[in-house]
Amino acid sequence: MLNTLWLAQTGGLSPAQRAVRDHFQQGGSFSGTVIVVSVLLIALVLLYLAGRREQRNRRQSAEAPQRLFLSVVLQLPLERRQRQALLSLARDLRLANPTTILLSREMFDQAVVDWLQFHAAARRTSERAHLRELLAQCRAVLFVSSKGQRVTAEVLRSTAQPVMSAES
């Protein structure tokens, strides 16, 4: 009854409805239509699942460098507060691959300078001396001198002071 009333008000069938009517009038089967609709639904579900998988893979690949850095820092012979300083440095500078700062003194020193400048810009000047000392201790543990000895914090302060004080 409602369909008849709707047809009378709209003046006819839509093109899609006419196509369905013509399909069945020409001997088309209902099972064929169900199969086509089922295949389309399955294709849509597969596309959705592939998109979700790609999104998950992208998110995991973005987190992989941070997980690597965390695992490396946890294996280093550092004190808890030194580890926290290194993790904060990587987080605050938003380093894409934070483990790279552990590869060379120069990369480490540049990251420290950038981080101390970050703290200066954030008006955290009271923390800077403490952070400088913590990172000097980290550097002494991380990098060995050319003679095979660990670099002491005093030697570090004397050599790194001009670099680290440039941003002061």
Enumerate how many helices there are, as a single number. Answer: 7
Low-confidence stretches: 148-168
SSE string, helices as H and strands as E: HHHHHHH
Distance between the termini: 84 Å
The oligomeric state of the chains shown is single chain
Content-based structural category: mainly alpha
Please sum up the structure shown:
The chain has 168 residues and is mainly α. 76% of the residues lie in helices and 0% in strands.
Spell out the key features of this protein.
168 residues; mainly alpha; 7 helices; 76% helix; disordered C terminus
Walk me through the structure:
Helix 6 (125-142) packs across helix 7 (153-165). The chain folds into two domains: 15-62; 76-168, no CATH class. It has seven helices and no strands. It starts with a helix and ends with a helix. The model is unreliable at 148-168 (pLDDT under 50). Helix content is 76%, strand content 0%. The chain is rod-shaped and about 85 Å long. The protein has helices spanning 2-10, 15-25, 30-75, 80-93, 105-121, 125-142, 153-165. The protein is mainly alpha-helical and 168 residues long. The longest helix has 46 residues, at 30-75.
